[in-house]
Amino acid sequence: MDDIPEAVRNTPRIKPTYPRSLIWVVGGILIIGIASLISITWFFRSSPKSSVESSPSATPAEATPQPSPTLENILGHLPYSEAPASELKAITSDGRIRLRRGAAEKFQEMQAAARKEGIILTAISGFRSVQDQQYLFFKVKEQRNQETKERAEVSAPPGYSEHHTGYAVDIGDGKVPATNLKTSFENTAAFRWLQNNAARYSFELSFPPNNPQGISYEPWHWRYVGDSKSLETFYKAQQLKNN
Q1: What is the Rg, in whole angstroms, of the alpha carbon atoms belonging to the chain?
Q2: CA distances from 91 to 96, 99, 117, 166 (A)
Q3: At how many degrees (to 10) do helices 189-197 and 101-116 cross?
Q4: Which of 104, 161, 103, 150 is nearest to 128 (CA)?
């Protein structure tokens, strides 16, 4: 018996076994996870983009059109800036009355043409500073015991006079000075000549009867509109909406 080697016995490996219920649970979890992942992916791919991203016509906020600016007036008078002193030229021998250079030259040309026909066009007032207008409006208003609205019908408040621009001039008849700055000026030879000839020299009546600004008729008050700057000054402002 000792000569016979002892048989070596190998213990066979036993594969573990799992209950079928556990396999079904694990499989179910995997299936549910895969299905959820597919659903989420599909959702994000199919969701519509925001209107700003998808619409090529969308414009940034700064490109949105803004409402047109409005221009305030005071009792019918529109605001005007003072002409620079460097752009003014005297139209009287004493240098007291001045207009912008282009307007001054055309006024003197018009004055000379009228004189040849026996008409004396007298310059009564031209450029006025805001300070000058301050006195004319408020001090004269007090002296005449006028209401503000009443005063505004015949004189612009400071900062709102066409005379600030250097393009406006008050004209009288040198032969009938008693009509200066009065509606009776319309009965003079000078006024009739202006009606027929002023446009040739680029001057027009600022405040005719029933003017849209509601200013009293001023047959003596004329303004120059013979270049782009003067046209912009008097027309662009008046085309804006008033509050």
Answers
A1: 45
A2: 8, 7, 20, 11
A3: 120
A4: 161
For the ranges 14-23, 165-174, 204-213, the one whose mean pLDDT is highest: 165-174
CA dist., res. 140 & res. 152, Å (int)? 11
Q: Which residue has the tokens 């499989």?
A: 27
Q: What is the pLDDT of residue 73?
A: 58
Instruction: Evaluate if pTM is beyond 0.70.
Output: no
Alpha-carbon distance of 177 to 144, in angstroms, equals 22
Contacts of 209 (CB under 8 A, 6+ apart): 217
Beta strands in 76-132 (DSSP E): 88-90, 98-100, 121-125
Three-state DSSP class for 173?
Answer: strand
What pLDDT digit, counting tens, does each position of 1-53 carry? 444 444 444 444 545 555 555 555 555 565 665 656 565 555 555 544 433 33
**SS3 label, residue 19:** coil
Please state, in angstroms and rounded to a whole number, the distance separating the CA atoms of residues 211 and 115. 30
